[in-house]
């Protein structure tokens, strides 16, 4: 069993993946557009180090500056709200046929929500039912 996060994103990628492995489970996380836009737009970076901050989940100690150097943080062009909205629309259009493909194969499992800690128990239950537990040497 292997997991691919955020992949495949296009039908071409799905077809290429088919040539190297057979999927038996695909998970789709349905998160509202506004939630995704807000989360991605809250991302700021320290260019020199690549450190990433999220103003909602892990903000810097002082707003707008890197914790270690005190240098200014920047928002990447593609993380600005207008760019995020365009990226999400493009992704949705490209991903729709991929979702339909896996739905037609009966291997797509969709989960909806806005908070990881509320979605994860359902995903975990599904995965636990599909993947046998790994036993330690003592348990074998």
UniProtKB/TrEMBL annotation:
<dbReference type="InterPro" id="IPR000850">
    <property type="entry name" value="Adenylat/UMP-CMP_kin"/>
</dbReference>
<dbReference type="Pfam" id="PF00406">
    <property type="entry name" value="ADK"/>
</dbReference>
<feature type="domain" description="Adenylate kinase active site lid">
    <location>
        <begin position="43"/>
        <end position="78"/>
    </location>
</feature>
<keyword id="KW-0808">Transferase</keyword>
<keyword id="KW-0547">Nucleotide-binding</keyword>
<dbReference type="Pfam" id="PF05191">
    <property type="entry name" value="ADK_lid"/>
</dbReference>
<dbReference type="GO" id="GO:0005524">
    <property type="term" value="F:ATP binding"/>
</dbReference>
<dbReference type="InterPro" id="IPR027417">
    <property type="entry name" value="P-loop_NTPase"/>
</dbReference>
<dbReference type="GO" id="GO:0004017">
    <property type="term" value="F:AMP kinase activity"/>
</dbReference>
<dbReference type="InterPro" id="IPR007862">
    <property type="entry name" value="Adenylate_kinase_lid-dom"/>
</dbReference>
<keyword id="KW-0418">Kinase</keyword>
<comment type="similarity">
    <text>Belongs to the adenylate kinase family.</text>
</comment>
<protein>
    <submittedName>
        <fullName>KAD4 kinase</fullName>
    </submittedName>
</protein>
């Amino acid at each position: 069993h292997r997991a691919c996060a955020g992949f495949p994103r296009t039908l071409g990628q799905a077809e290429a993946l088919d040539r190297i492995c057979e999927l038996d489970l695909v998970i789709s996380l349905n998160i509202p557009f506004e939630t995704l836009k807000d989360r991605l737009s809250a991302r700021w970076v320290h260019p020199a180090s690549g450190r990433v901050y999220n103003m909602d989940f892990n903000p810097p100690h002082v707003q707008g500056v890197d914790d270690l150097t005190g240098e200014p943080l920047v928002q990447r062009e593609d993380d600005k709200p207008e760019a995020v909205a365009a990226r999400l629309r493009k992704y949705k259009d490209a991903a729709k046929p991929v979702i339909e493909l896996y739905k037609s194969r009966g291997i797509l499992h969709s989960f909806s929500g806005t908070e990881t800690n509320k979605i994860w128990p359902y995903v975990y239950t599904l995965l636990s039912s599909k993947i046998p537990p790994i036993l330690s040497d003592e348990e074998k």
